[in-house]
Amino acid sequence: MAAKLAAEPYKQSPSIEGDMRRLTYDQYRALRAKPDTALWRNDKSLFRAEFFPAGFIYEHPVQIFVVENGVARPLPVSPDDLDFSDTGLKQPPQKIELAGFRLLHPLNQPNKFDEVASFLGASYFRTIGRGQLYGTSARGLAIDTGIGGKPEEFPLFRAFWLVKPADGATDMTVWALLDSPGAAGAFSFTIRPGSRTTIDTTSIIYLRNDVQVLGIAPLTSMFFSGKATPARDDYRPEIHDSDGLYLSTGKGERIWRPLDNPGALAVSSFQDNNPRGFGLMQRERDFERYQDTSAGLHTRPSLWVEPVGDWGDGEVRLVEIPTQAETNDNIVAFWVSRWPAKKGERKEYAYRLHALLDEAALSPAGRTVATRVGAVPGQPKQRRMVVEFAGGELASLAPEQPVTSDVGLTNAKLNRTYVEALPWKRGWRLFIDFEPDGKKPVDLRAVLQLRGQTLTETWTSVFRP
């Protein structure tokens, strides 16, 4: 179906009209699916599905089918399935169409069905594990993201097939058809809820046209302020859904890159061959660092992409977009193959997407837990990076141990580095003093070592004068 679609000229799906199109954000949020209309509510299934109507900014309807015993049937939908009482509409619409759905599962309590995944808007989808609140999103595909002077293309899911799970099954499968001017695609998602909810994803992409940047397994998040860039005139010390990009390379190196809310569009590339994983992570889990009871930022999941099979040569690309509001998603990370995406080609990728809180399990060595930046006293041309590490062997080292650093940088003069122990935190801290070369961006990399043996992941950052 996707191959046939890609062979045809692209046709924009029609938008809905009427009162549903004119709904405000608050009105749309006030819409509720009636509890007695959930799909599979009367079965012994551990999954239920509720549906989002097309409306507000979700103006393009999607087709939704239910697959049972190998037979796909369109999902019947009626305005009577929704509660419009709090929307302010004088009367419910006579007809509604669907924009997406959410999946429910007894995630946190045995007798309560909680939301574990949702698919709504373009090719966006979200998932959470036990004890988590929605934050970072995933997408089916990203096209031409982060190209200055060229608009990004947003593929959208046109249709979904919800495969009815067997009674008592702990996973369920969703199929999806994606379309855009540049490509069409077929997707399979197998969702396994738990403390780490995992979505086994397979995507087959058919190129309708040449695509400059084909982003695979894209993740989208928000970073407004953090330890190195505290918010001004805000009681909250940090505001973000993710605080870093983490990579596990094909050669086994682990890399941490703290996120930034830059002054201008910033694109960073991390070249690799057959990556073991990458993700947008929320490492800071201390409520005291957020002070936000309503948003629950300390419970936002880290999303980790674990490639399956051979992905070949390419790069993980990080796009950081300046924003003046925490309501904007301004961080994107995805995989880009070294080889161009040409019209008529077929590309297939498989990966596991994990929503997790136990990010430390991915980092057996010392981890970066904080990055701070400031002036060097008495040296107006210099800047100081302070990087704090913890975990791994660092926790058992006495302060007297001769821990050293290996630091590299570009477009700057390295003035001084030194390491100090933080025994009350069972961690260590690295100071890097440097003098930038004019207005050129400074790339920095560092690890801690003991007698030539590396103790930590590789910390990397960019300082923009």
**Largest beta-sheet details:** 15 strands, mixed
Helix content: under 10%
Contiguous helical run count: 2
Oligomer: single chain
Q: Please identify, by name, the CATH architecture of the largest domain.
A: Distorted Sandwich
Find the count of extended strands (DSSP E, 2+ residues): 33
Shape: globular
Strand coverage percent:
over 45%
Query: How confident is the prediction overall: mean pLDDT?
Result: 95
Radius of gyration: 24 Å
The CATH C-level class name of the largest domain? Mainly Beta
Derived from helix and strand composition plus strand pairing, the structural class reads: mainly beta
* Total discrete domains: 2
What is the terminal-to-terminal distance?
A: 50 Å
Protein name: Glucans biosynthesis protein G
Family: Belongs to the OpgD/OpgG family.
Pathway: Glycan metabolism; osmoregulated periplasmic glucan (OPG) biosynthesis
Main location: periplasm
Protein described:
One of its GO terms (molecular function) is catalytic activity. It comes from Reyranella soli. Strand 18 and strand 19 form a beta hairpin. The longest helix is centred in the N-terminal third of the chain and has 6 residues, at about 25-30. The protein has about 475 residues and is mostly beta strands. The protein has a 15-stranded mixed β-sheet that branches. It folds into two domains: about 1-360, Distorted Sandwich (Beta-galactosidase, Chain A, domain 5), CATH 2.70.98.10; about 365-465, Sandwich (Immunoglobulin-like). The protein has helices at about 1-5, 25-30, and strands at about 30-35, 50-55, 65-70, 70-75, 80-85, 100-110, 110-120, 125, 135-140, 140-145, 155-165, 170-180, 185-190, 195-205, 215-220, 225, 240, 245-250, 255-260, 265-275, 275-280, 300-310, 315-320, 330-335, 345-355, 365-375, 380-390, 405-410, 410-420, 425-435, 440-450, 455, 460-465.
